[in-house]
Amino acid sequence: MSVPPIGLHVLLDLYGVEPARLEDCARIEAVLSEAARVAGARVLGARFHPFGPGQGVTGVLLLAESHISIHTWPEHGYAAVDVFMCGEAEAMTAATLIGERLRAGRIDVHECARGLSGERHAG
Amino acid sequence: MSVPPIGLHVLLDLYGVEPARLEDCARIEAVLSEAARVAGARVLGARFHPFGPGQGVTGVLLLAESHISIHTWPEHGYAAVDVFMCGEAEAMTAATLIGERLRAGRIDVHECARGLSGERHAG
Hints:
2 copies of one chain form a homodimer. The first copy, chain A, has 123 residues and is an alpha+beta fold. Chain A contains 3 helices and 6 strands; from the N terminus they run βααββββαβ. Chain A has helices at 19-23, 25-39, 91-101, and strands at 7-15, 43-50, 57-63, 66-73, 78-86, 106-114. The first copy, chain A, is globular, with a radius of gyration of 15 Å. Residues 118-123 of chain A have low confidence and may be disordered. Chains A and B meet through β1, β2, β3, β4 and β5 of A and β1, β2, β3, β4 and β5 of B.
């Protein structure tokens, strides 16, 4: 079997985010779309779901290069994001933009190289 | 700030999968839907995209408890899956079922506990 293609999967834990930023579904979708664009990825489709006033948002952008997801908990000032991109698209560029746009107080970043048969954990 | 909720994020690298299984978009969506159901998760929406005959599939199930994604490369017998579930839903149950249904020759599993401020890497 040939070596599978390599993709970079970035998991972001964002803490200390202003709750209002984590409730605004339209703005969150716009931030993820911008992140896909600056990373050089192509959006195939989107699904976003607001859980209601004062509650979180969950959503995914499906990309030709894989996906970006976000799940937010305004009551904890917390968002879980993951950016998975294959090919030439730059996952870390997208991840960095999302952290900046949501103005997180603290960002934990965890990187995983996907699709390597051997040593695959880069973060 | 209170401690954020904990979710389990499972990254699966599936190797040695029969190519035909990785091209069948309808069947892959059915497998992911079954996985969500057995894990006790609720599906909010789905986006799946086949890249064409002999090519891979990319897709995401958006869940009330977060998401399940899959991206396949039939030419390499490889699929990248991630299962992220919060609350009572059982991410590892879903991940195990997906590996079984796709009859992977080898499965690499990487677990990350999400939303912990301190020690958060469980895998």
